[in-house]
Amino acid sequence: MKSVGVIAEYNPFHNGHLYHLNQSKAMTGSDIVIVAMSGNFLQRGEPAIVSKWTRAKMALNAGADVVVEIPYPFAVQKAEIFASGSVAILDALHCQSICFGSESGTIHSFYKTVDFLEKNQDTYNQYIRHFIKQGVSYPKALALAFGALGKKEDTVDLTRPNNILGYHYIHAANRLNSDIHFYTVKRHTAEHDDDHIHDDQIASATSIRKLIRENGHLESIRPYIPETTYAEMEAYYQSYLHWHEWEDYWPYLQYRLLTMNEDEMNNMYDIEVGLPYRLQKAAEKSSSFRSFMERVKTKRYTWTRLQRICVHILTNTTKKDMETAGNKPQYIRLLGISAGGRAYLNKVKKDVSLPIVSTVSSFPEDLLRLDRKAALVYSQALSETKRDRLFTLEYAQPPIMT
Amino acid sequence: MKSVGVIAEYNPFHNGHLYHLNQSKAMTGSDIVIVAMSGNFLQRGEPAIVSKWTRAKMALNAGADVVVEIPYPFAVQKAEIFASGSVAILDALHCQSICFGSESGTIHSFYKTVDFLEKNQDTYNQYIRHFIKQGVSYPKALALAFGALGKKEDTVDLTRPNNILGYHYIHAANRLNSDIHFYTVKRHTAEHDDDHIHDDQIASATSIRKLIRENGHLESIRPYIPETTYAEMEAYYQSYLHWHEWEDYWPYLQYRLLTMNEDEMNNMYDIEVGLPYRLQKAAEKSSSFRSFMERVKTKRYTWTRLQRICVHILTNTTKKDMETAGNKPQYIRLLGISAGGRAYLNKVKKDVSLPIVSTVSSFPEDLLRLDRKAALVYSQALSETKRDRLFTLEYAQPPIMT
């Protein structure tokens, strides 16, 4: 049984994802697709529009066989850590290959890029430090350092978001001494973030979420998503009367920022000197998340890094919490599984070095604490009984079976 | 110019309070009434139904001359500390007398009680420790210890809530070496807490709030409040579309309890060993503040003590914060003042040892931090722009002038 791994957020699952899923199977000749998916909060420091359970269902309905959660300490992180956690999980589950979407579309160029940077590592790191000292953001410094290394042939453009992730996946596999083979599918839409639609069937997740918010209903996104996604999005709304967005959490973020003391602020993960005061002053003056973000954004702090910091403040995730979580995932939380996925897991599970968590209650509570807090925070967007109903899933919902 | 001090919460101001205000002036022959009033959170660990600004207006409209705020570290506290903070403020403002409502109604008996307990202090304290060891609550232990001291003549019944407060007022004045004279007015309604109405013009604040909640409008409370209170209650509702209650804060309390770590819980003011786990487990299972409280209540922890602890958790008030605040108020925050009150303050202010805060912006931010956090938390019951509008008053509202 051959398996291919996919790293995804499915926010929500759309036709581009479906194309990628099918291509992943076809290109690698795999029987089984394993998805490592972000939980309720995403890599860019945003709440997912619907819960991880609904997004896992979307993936299963579209042909995924196993959906596992990227644990919070790896999901809400910069590309490098996000990649290392995701790849480690897929490696632990014995995927023979990983297939990712990229702007480049040529796997050969990725391997070349990783090789090139590993050979020029010291100079590269010197450049990175140099540019960071000039006050630019970390991702910007990476791109500038890469450019400063001079002319290189056949490498990928490391200013594009999906190329960056792809690069980090391969780099992470190297550091794990993993023999996973990588494949890449060229993305149909121009940009991960693009909120314009250029195609009559393919639109980015960003533009799809924008359509939902602008129209307040799902009809307008129908051309861009599988029918199964439509049904799950509708079911979620009927059940919770809500699609999640950052503004839902603003009252909680403002409340936290304005009641925390200095020590507590400084303990928060990824917070640097000077930022607490800046965040607290802006929170006092802002009446929406958007206006708050516009106040705190600087050249040094990217929008996404600040969003991640805000998620960590919401979930009360400290530097110590992240240290304790370590630099490799310590468990694999199973969100959903197909019949094929069950057969696969039964075959490989004796060789899986990490515990696979199906029933939360039989697992040490402490290890899952950060995911649990993220689930609690995520559910605060809902009103009363719906809030409790959604949070209860975190410990009561068994993996979804199809 | 003679002044009498009154210690109050006015939640909301009703005919009983008006009677007490008028009696206080008449009994003491005072020109000026100074009210030390709780802010947005009250002694019993509850949010006030309307903000401190509206309650200050009610008091001014009914004849009060100066309304000052009992700072948070003294307002949300057991009777002894509440009394010591309130009396210290009225003493600093040079009130010649304090007049309080009580079940007893006989000031002579209060002085006797204070004398008796000061004389029997050691035995009394031994009894208190004895009963606390048996697992009863602190107020219950006080009452039992008082009973155990045997037969005494002409003392007040220290199982009644207003008698207890009155006792602590006099006791606090003694410890301050203050020469304030005390007076007491017998309360019309049987109990502070009584939610039944026995009179056609006098009802307890508790029963008035109950009527508002049950009926959803103010018409039913009209017989029990001055016309000016009616107008202020209506204006508050028109402005904020809300009357505050504990359930409004439940999502925030649950969120805090389920995202705090053990150290943070143990740092919270008035938290004792064993309580964090109990609170967190109950928060997980409860979908309302009421059901939460019913789960955590024990013989040892009274409902009001637990409510106060919950307010401290909401405002993130630590043991260290309360230590820093000290055991005497460090400032007097002026909420409202009449023409008479201005004349009085102009006369005495050179002899007032504490700074009088009229403009928050000209005062060290750190000292007012706990009041500010309380105001922030209090405003979280409201939606979006109303929340910000109410919170802004905390630093932008000058004292109300009449």
From TrEMBL, chains A, B:
| Subcellular location as annotated | Cytoplasm
Entry EC no(s): 6.3.4.-
Out of the domains of life, which is the source? Answer: Bacteria
Keyword annotations from UniProtKB, A to Z = ATP-binding, Cytoplasm, Ligase, Nucleotide-binding, RNA-binding, tRNA processing, tRNA-binding
Classification via Pfam families: HIGH_NTase1
InterPro entries, sorted? Rossmann-like_a/b/a_fold, tRNA(Met)_cyd_acetate_ligase
| Reactions mediated catalytically | cytidine(34) in elongator tRNA(Met) + acetate + ATP = N(4)-acetylcytidine(34) in elongator tRNA(Met) + AMP + diphosphate
Q: What class of enzyme is it?
A: ligase
Task: Give me the residues that bind ATP, please.
Answer: 7-20, 101, 162, 187
The function of this protein is: Catalyzes the formation of N(4)-acetylcytidine (ac(4)C) at the wobble position of elongator tRNA(Met), using acetate and ATP as substrates. First activates an acetate ion to form acetyladenylate (Ac-AMP) and then transfers the acetyl group to tRNA to form ac(4)C34.
What NCBIfam families does the entry give?
PRK13670.1
Family named by the database record: Belongs to the TmcAL family.
How is this protein named in the record?
Answer: tRNA(Met) cytidine acetate ligase
Top-level taxonomy: Bacteria, Bacillati, Bacillota, Bacilli, Bacillales
